[in-house]
Write a structure and sequence with these properties.
This protein is of the alpha+beta class and 159 residues long. It has a single domain (3-158), classed as 3-Layer(aba) Sandwich (Glutaredoxin), CATH 3.40.30.10. It contains four helices and six strands, in the order βββαβααββα. The chain has helices spanning 40-51, 74-85, 104-112, 147-158; strands at 7-9, 15-17, 25-31, 56-62, 128-131, 137-141. The protein has a four-stranded mixed β-sheet, sandwiched between helices. A two-stranded antiparallel ribbon has the order 1-2. A hairpin with a 5-residue loop joins β5 (128-131) and β6. The two termini are 24 Å apart.
């Protein structure tokens, strides 16, 4: 099983195979529009622009499991991201990242890169998972870790 075996839902409800991202370094992030970390969208967009031509992409997955901070519909979330942050990376359909309804992709990511003290659950919005070109989950970054602080590790993974 690799990350490329997963299908995820696009914001319009259609399926997207992660195989389409094979060979790229990925930063997979659970996001929210009404979170104290929401301004990280700006930094994420900067990373996307800086590294896109080298084979990098951010994949954002809105989640409403933390403090009801992503209550909008998928179309409202798309509009928010475009108007406020002009994101060019994909923002997929809303998912659960924890619990019995956790999206299979996030179950896989959490096993591949456990959190502090080897705990699996995602703790909050804007937890970030770095994935290598060959689909290996390299590292988990805490919500407070700014996108800019990850730039060197992305550059290293792109080598």
């Amino acid at each position: 099983m690799s990350i490329y075996d997963f299908q995820v839902k696009k914001s319009d409800g259609s399926d997207q195979s992660l195989k389409d991202y094979e060979g790229q370094v990925l930063l997979i992030v659970n996001t929210a529009s009404r979170c104290g970390f929401t301004p990280q969208y700006e930094g994420l967009q900067q990373l996307q622009e800086e590294f896109k031509e080298q084979g990098f992409s951010i994949l954002a997955f809105p989640c409403n499991q933390f403090g009801n901070q992503e209550p909008g519909s998928n179309s409202e979330i798309q509009q928010f991201c475009k108007i406020n942050y002009d994101v060019s990376f994909p923002v997929f359909a809303k998912v659960d990242v924890n619990g019995t309804n956790a999206d299979p992709l996030f179950q896989y990511l959490k096993k591949g890169a456990p959190g502090v003290l080897n705990t699996e659950p995602v703790k909050w919005n804007f937890t970030k998972f770095l994935v290598s070109k060959d689909g290996e989950v390299l590292k988990r970054f805490a919500p407070a870790t700014t996108p800019n602080a990850i730039a060197d590790e992305i550059a290293e993974a792109l080598k």
